[in-house]
Amino acid sequence: MxxxxxxxxxxxxxxxxxxxxxxxxxxxxxxxxxxxxxEVARRLNYRPNQxxxxxATNRSYLLGMVVPDLMHSYxxxxxxxxxxxxxPAGFQIVVCNTEEDAGRELSEVQALLRxxxxxxxxSALPPAETKEYRKMIKEGAKIVLIDRELANLHCPxxxxxxxxxxxxxxxxxxxxxxxxIGHLRGKPSAVAADRFEGYKQALAKHAxxxxxxxxxxxxxxxxxxxxxMRDWIAEGCFPKAVFAANDPAAIGAMQAIEEAGLRVxxxxxxxxxxxIHYGDMLRVPLTTVSWSLAEMGQAAAxxxxxxxxxxxxGPKSAPRIVIAPELIVRQSSGAGKTGKTKARR
Amino acid sequence: MxxxxxxxxxxxxxxxxxxxxxxxxxxxxxxxxxxxxxEVARRLNYRPNQxxxxxATNRSYLLGMVVPDLMHSYxxxxxxxxxxxxxPAGFQIVVCNTEEDAGRELSEVQALLRxxxxxxxxSALPPAETKEYRKMIKEGAKIVLIDRELANLHCPxxxxxxxxxxxxxxxxxxxxxxxxIGHLRGKPSAVAADRFEGYKQALAKHAxxxxxxxxxxxxxxxxxxxxxMRDWIAEGCFPKAVFAANDPAAIGAMQAIEEAGLRVxxxxxxxxxxxIHYGDMLRVPLTTVSWSLAEMGQAAAxxxxxxxxxxxxGPKSAPRIVIAPELIVRQSSGAGKTGKTKARR
DNA sequence: ATTGACGGTGTTACCGGTAACAAATACTAT
DNA sequence: ATAGTATTTGTTACCGGTAACACCGTCAAT
Lengths: 345, 345
Hints:
Largest sheet of chain A: 6 strands, parallel
Largest interface: A-B, 53 and 53 residues
Structural class of chain A: alpha/beta
Number of helices of chain A: 12
Distance between the termini of chain A: 45 Å
Helix content of chain A: 40-55%
Strand order of the largest sheet of chain A: 2-1-3-4-5-11
Oligomer: homodimer
Order of helices and strands of chain A: HHHHEHEHEHEEHEHEHEHEEHEE
C-alpha cells in the first residue's frame, strides 16, 4: 500500500493537517517543520492520492479532450499543444475518440464531465443540435469548443475562419484561370457549411455562377474523398479544379484521380484544408489552406483553465477566438513550381 | 451541484446504501426498489462521482498511456486501438506525451501511477536503465510495456520482432542486388539495437561484410534522418541502399536525397519501418516493414486489464507478446513497379 | 499584570461513495 | 410454535485528503 498523509504524521508524531500543509506549501507552517515533513515524505516516496484530493477539493486536475478522429494528425497536433499548456499547469488529459459518432460523443462527454475539471470538445454533432450541450452548460459544465463550432451556444469557442478558408482555396483556383470549380463538402457541420459558403462567396465575388451539381458531399475522411472523386470521374463530367473539405478528403480524391490515369496538378487541380502532416511530402505536394494548430490548441487550453478558475465571467464569459487561415501553395493545384521541398523539422 | 446518492436516498426515504446497490446492480436488492431508484436517478440526472468511488474501491477506471511522440501516427494508432478495448471495459485513458524525454517520462509515470489503475508505456528510456521501473513494479505498479522493451524487467511486454524487422528490410535490399547497404540507427533503445542486430545478421547470412562506417545514428525523428542523410551525401561516400530505423527517419532521409538532386528508388534505395500513415501516398511510396498496430494495442490493453484484475499470476505473470512484422514493398527501395497505388480506407 | 495579536498546530467534520456487518421481515421446515 | 434461513434494508466506519475553526504559547503594547 502506498504511503498516506497519516503514515507520515504517525512517523513524525504530528497531525495529518500539519503534513497536508507542509506538502501544499501553506504559508502558515514553520519552515523547519516543513523541511522535516518533506524529508520523510521523500523517504517514504509519498504521492498524494489524487482521488481523495479531488473528492475533498472538487478539483481533479484532469481535463477531457474529445476528438472525432485520433488518426488525423490534425487532432493529434491539437492534443499535443493542449497538453503543452495543461501539463505546466498541473493538469493531465483524458482523451476520448468518438470516431465521428454523435451518440458516442454525448455519452462520453457526460461521463467525462463528472470526472474532470473541464472539457475541450471537437464536436461531431450537427451544428444545430445543441440541446444536450445547452443543458450541460446551464448546469455549470466547463466546456470549450475547438475546431467545430455549434450554433448559439453560450460557450467559449476556438476555431478558424472557415468562410475565409473556403474563399482562399477557391480564389486561388480562380486566380489560376479555372472557371469551373468543384467542391467536395464535409458532412453537415458548421465547418463544412462555412467552407462551402466561402466557396460560394468566392465564386460570386468573381462573377462566376454557382452550380449545385459541382458541390458534392463526401465527409471529412479520406475514404469519402476517394469514393466521391472516383464516382465523379466515372460519370464523365467533372470539374478540372476541386476544393476539398479537408486534407484527408483531398488525398482520397488525389488517389481516385491517379487511379483514373489523370495527373493531379495538371489534369485536375486540388486544394485541401488543414495542413496534414507530410502534406508536402506527398507524390504531388498538397496545396492547402492552413492555420496554426499550436495556437489553436493553446488558446483553447488557456481559455479552459481560466474558465475553471472562474476567471471568465461577465460580458466576455464566452469568448470566440479565431485563428486566421492562410493559403499554402504547393503543386496539387497546378500553380507553377512554387512548392519546393524544404527542410522541415 | 450535481446529484449525489444522498439526494436520491432522501427523495425516496431510504438509505444511501440501497441507492448504491441499485445503481451498481447488486444482486441482493428488490427488483421493484431498484426500478424506483433508477427512475429517480434518471430524473435527477445522477452521475456517480468517480473520485469518491475510486477512493472507496481503490479502482479509478482510468488507464494511463505514455508515448514518446503523439505526432507520430504510429502512436496515435496504438492509442486508438487501446481505447477500442478500454472503453467497452469501462475505462478511460489519460495520455501523456514525453517527447522522447526520459526524465519527463519518469516523473509522469510516477504521477500517473497514483491516479490510474494501470499504465501502458512506450518508453523513451535506454533499455538498460530499469532501476526506477524495477522499483515501481516491485511496489505493485501495473505496467505493460508496448513497442519498446526494457531489459530484464518482470513486466508484460507487447512488441514486434525487431531483429526480424531489420532482417526483412536488409534482405530485401540484398535481394535487389545491393552489396553496400547503410543503416540509419535509432537512438539507444532495444528497438534500435535489435533492428541494427537484424541488419547485421542479414549481412552475415549473405556473406556480406559488416562495415561500421555504414551505420550511423540518427534517432527516430524525421529531422534526424534528414540531417544524417544530408551530411552523408555531402561527405561524398554514401551507400546506394539504406535501411532507416523507422519511417519518419526514412522520410527525412528521402528529403535529403531529393534535395541533393538524387532520385529515391533509383539512385538510392530506402526502406523504413513502421508503416506510417500515408506512406503509400508519398512522392516516392515508402517501402517499409510493418506489423499490425491494432493487434499490438489491443494485446497490450487486454494484458493490462488482466493484470489489473489480478488474472495474471504464477509463471506467466509477465507474458511477452510478439506481433510478427512483414515487408511492404513499394517504390522507395527501387523494386520494380510492385507498389501500385491501391484504394485504402 | 492584562490584553491582544500572531504564528503554529490540533480537532472535527465532511467530500461521496462502498464494505462489512447488523437487523428486520417473511417464509420454510420441523 | 419455534428455530432456521433467505431476502432485503439499514448502520457504522472508512477510503485519504482538506476547510474551518479552536487552541496554545509567546511576545508587544498598555
